Amino acid sequence: MAAAASSEILRFPQYKYVDAVRWLPLISAFDRFAVLATFDFDSDASSIEIHSFKPNSLSLESQSSWLSPSRVSSLKASQFLQKTIIVASTSSGSLHFLFSDSTDASLESEVSVPEGALHSVPASCVDLMDGGVECVTVGEDGRVNLVTVGNSNLNYRRLFDSAGLVSYTAAKWASPKEFATGGYGFGLQLWDQLTPGGPVSQLKGNWDKKLSAGMVHSIDIHPSRKHTCLVGGSLGTVFAWDLRSPKQPIVLSGIGAGAGAGNRSISESEVWEVQYDRCIKSNTSSTRILPSMICSEDGILAVIEEGEEPIELLAEPCAINCFDIDRHNPSDVICSFEWEAVAILTRQ
């Protein structure tokens, strides 16, 4: 395993479970904000909270909060014009859009889709289009929905319904008209809104018999390489699906990885989240996969690059449930621990 670059790690106990965490779009060089989805086991209360991170005082302070009707199952944030939009799905099946003021990150308003309107079960994943007002939701009930934010309401339509024959657990926008989904058996699908009726391309989950019982937990698509989906899932598996060679994925880590140098698996448990790591300046050609970051059930936060030894950033005694790389300052990573804490890691 390659040695990690020097970094500063700040831990902030929350005294309640953190289901998800995301950086908010940068407002100014001096104002840093993050949104947390929390659950208090003692009071059975769920909330979405905006916290201010002050690097000079090394503090994470609560700014505003919104009480959720149930636990948050998926959380995303984006910026549209002068507003920050936060979208959250809940375990009761509702979908909520929160609008935040761009000057102080205070929560201003909320519109929602009631439970049962989109999915018969909680949405497994939602993804909000960068710089846009359209959201895709997927669920284990096999439904794929598109939700558009209007001036004061939400418009939604069902793009596809497998009637439970196919279950979806992850989704990610690739372009204003295309997005990818993933689910059980490591299957992947690419959808195009201009081609209704089903996915336009698929990766069937039988590409490696050892992984046929696995599940896709997270998908990322780099804005400059929209033909490649980065995937994290069960058994420590991280792979890339290149649409130019759609039948055989490139395994980066996990039990399907090769035994050669640079292919060492960093984890053997669930990879809860995967993102392209924009902090790593790679010299790889267009035929190689860009560096990525993963977090796992066995407490690993690490960087993976094709053909290189993985770089371990954190090794915790509990699960790292999710993380987010600040797109404006890619050296900064925020993550949540199963042991009711948030950490901010700054790479030098």
UniProtKB/TrEMBL annotation:
Signal peptide: none
Main location: nucleus
Gene3D superfamilies in the record: YVTN repeat-like/Quinoprotein amine dehydrogenase
Keywords recorded for this protein, A-Z: Nucleus, Repeat, WD repeat
SUPFAM superfamilies cross-referenced by the UniProt entry: WD40 repeat-like
Highest rank taxon of the organism: Eukaryota
InterPro entries tied to this protein: WD40/YVTN_repeat-like_dom_sf (IPR015943), WD40_repeat_dom_sf (IPR036322)
Subcellular location(s) of the protein: Nucleus
One term under GO cellular component: nuclear pore outer ring
UniProt KW Nucleus keyword: yes
The name this protein goes by in its record: Nuclear pore complex protein NUP43
Species in which this protein is naturally found: Canavalia gladiata
